[in-house]
Amino acid sequence: MPRPAPDLELRRGQIVAAASRVAEAEGWLAVTMRRIAGELGVTQPVLYTVFAGRQSLIDAVALDGFTALASALEAADRTPIARMRAYLEFSAAHPTIYDAMFSMPSDLQFSKAAHEPLTRAFTAIRDVFPSDDDARAEVAWATLHGLATLQATGRLPAERAEARLERAHAQLAG
Fold first, then answer.
1. Nearest C-alpha neighbor of 137 from the set 147, 124, 146, 149
2. Do the beta carbons of residue 172 and residue 136 sit within 8 Å?
3. What sign does the dihedral 152-97-127-111 (CA atoms) show?
4. Is the pLDDT assigned to residue 154 strictly greater than 70?
5. Does the pTM exceed 0.85?
6. CA–CA distance, 70 with 88 (Å, rounded to integer)
7. Interval 33-92: pLDDT, tens
8. Could you tell me if 110 and 138 are in contact, meaning their C-beta atoms sit under 8 angstroms apart?
9. Using CA atoms, how far apart are residues 97 and 9, in angstroms rounded to an integer?
10. Average pLDDT score, the chain
């Protein structure tokens, strides 16, 4: 009797979740196809039925991160300061995923034809920082990314985080 075809979307989710867990616990260097296969109790070829390689797996983790970021932004009040706060809270709560989204090499592109999760996250920023050419939203995103990165690395004093957020909001709102 033939075996049923695997549910590739379920398998994809399991692989991405395992990669995220390993990355959160030990960092991205620990995320290898061999390690993830071992975590799931499968052979490496099983992973390759869903992902072409490690980079496509990390990109999938990043895309799931963008989906989560978009959800966090959309759940926030529809005000610039609330969306900015939600962005910074997301980056602080998920530093390893945030690294996959923004700091690690990636084949993901930020463009008009980008993947839906990237577009959705950008739209949540653009909705509260509108302009005819998206430049205002791009500057808002870049400002938030800069704040998130500098805060995560401890290069900015934690006690002034709220003051920086308010100053950024005032400058972007003007």
1. 124
2. yes
3. positive
4. yes
5. yes
6. 12
7. 999 999 999 999 999 999 999 999 999 999 999 999 999 999 999 999 999 999 999 999
8. no
9. 20
10. 93
